[in-house]
Amino acid sequence: MTQNKANKKFVYLISPNKIKGEDFYTNLALILNTKKVSFFQLRLKKETNRNKIAVGKKILKICRKFKVKFIVNDDPKLAKKLNADGCHLGQKDISILKAKKILKNKIIGVTCHNSINLAKKALKEGADYLAFGAFYSSQTKKIRYKASLKILRLVKKITNTPIVAIGGIKLSNYKRLLLNKANFLAISGYIWNNKKYKPLEAIKKLK
């Protein structure tokens, strides 16, 4: 779970909301081949379980090839079925303790919004990483919680558990988060819906 500084694998890549066509898989392989990605999260809110399994199996193969951890959003049972590396839980999802019963020693990450109290609770229950955000406005997800850079510094004082920053992260602001000790940056729209750069170009700009 540690960040590999030499490799600069600081990207926590989240899937687009919809995955259509073979282009996605081609682009994903090119992106993971840049060795900037540590995690890939499958986040398909509106798909059937059957489709999630079909898509997940293809993505898992690509992640394994490039040694990227494959995480499933919200659903520990699906994560287990896909033999994923772990699961990401929101505050309204199943508890960490219940997820651990399903996934045993797999990675479990938790959304903590902008709250130190939620972070402390997640740490107590054994979360493997903590996600905070949104740091910036985002087109990908409706923003209910706004996080400031101060939260990163506060969390670093209480734990060495890796921190993932999320929300509107792009070329103009990503360095600020890394400088404020975020271990990983959760990125989606900047890669998949970038009007200026193709996915591979977009990730190559993050140095």
Characterise this structure.
This protein is of the alpha/beta class and about 210 residues long. The chain is built from nine helices and eight strands. It has helices at about 25-30, 50-65, 75-80, 95-105, 115-125, 150-160, 175-180, 190, 200-205; strands at about 10-15, 35-40, 70-75, 85-90, 105-110, 130-135, 165, 185. The protein has an eight-stranded parallel beta barrel, surrounded by four helices. Strand 7, helix 7 and strand 8 (about 185) form a beta-alpha-beta unit. Helix 1 packs parallel to helix 2 (about 50-65). It is globular, with a radius of gyration of 16 Å.
Low-confidence stretches: 3-7
How far the N terminus sits from the C terminus, by CA atoms, comes to 21 Å
What is the strand arrangement across the widest sheet?
1-2-3-4-5-6-7-8
- Number of E-state strands: 8
Q: What gyration radius follows from the Cα positions, in whole Å? A: 16 Å
SS-based class: alpha/beta
Count up the helices.
9
Instruction: State the helicity in percent bands.
Output: 25-40%
The global form is globular
- The portion of residues forming beta strands comes to 15-25%
Task: From the structure above, extract its key features.
207 residues; alpha/beta; eight-stranded parallel β-barrel; disordered N terminus
In short:
The protein is an alpha/beta fold and 207 residues long. The protein has helices at residues 23-32, 49-65, 76-81, 96-103, 116-124, 149-158, 174-179, 189-192, 199-204, and strands at 11-14, 37-42, 69-73, 86-89, 107-111, 129-133, 163-166, 184-187.
